[in-house]
Amino acid sequence: MQAKEIKTGIVVVYEGNPVLIEKISVHSPSARGAATLYKFRARNVVTRNKIDITMKGTDPIDEADFQRRNVQMMYTDPTHIFLMDQEDYQQFELPLEDVEEQLPYITEGLEGMRALIYNDGCVGLDVPTSVELTITQCDPGVKGNSATSRTKPATMETGLVVQVPEYIKDGEKLKIDTRTGEFLSRA
């Protein structure tokens, strides 16, 4: 595979290590004959270190021998999250610090969660791009303010605080974007 074919969320081998591509930016050349540069923000899936990679569009790179398997959260303890493979019921555990960014979006029975499996071990977790969460605490809207586009903070069932429009009330189910943490719509 060439560098110009890489998409976010793919796992490639860079300097002998599997890395998950998180962000891509393309820099066009300013001179004739210069190559377009692709800059990748990646994370080593084993050590969790961030890596910046710069490549020309035609540079070759290998895709890692990697699997994504549908999992369901079983439970968490103070240090780990425990997951179960939905196909063969194999159990995986991940330290909570490895899934710190995804944790505010994970609820019991969340559909579409996928474990990143490398060398028969779980090294990461993918959550869907949007999830449905219920509001547990939200200030009431002020009457007459519904015409403006003002927002207010709402605390979701997982502890995540999201800015929502003023017309949203306690107990409502909302769609939240897991990439940005922003309110999308009512569920």
Automatic annotation (TrEMBL):
Gene3D superfamilies: 2.30.30.30, Nucleic acid-binding proteins
Cytoplasm found in the keyword field: no
Pfam families assigned: EFP, EFP_N, Elong-fact-P_C
Keywords in alphabetical order: Elongation factor, Protein biosynthesis
Domain called Elongation factor P C-terminal: residue spans: 131-186
Any one of the GO CC terms: cytosol
Source domain of life: Bacteria
GO biological process entries: peptide biosynthetic process
Keyword Protein biosynthesis: yes
Name of the protein in question: Elongation factor P-like protein
Organism (species): Stieleria marina
Lineage of producing organism: Bacteria, Pseudomonadati, Planctomycetota, Planctomycetia, Pirellulales
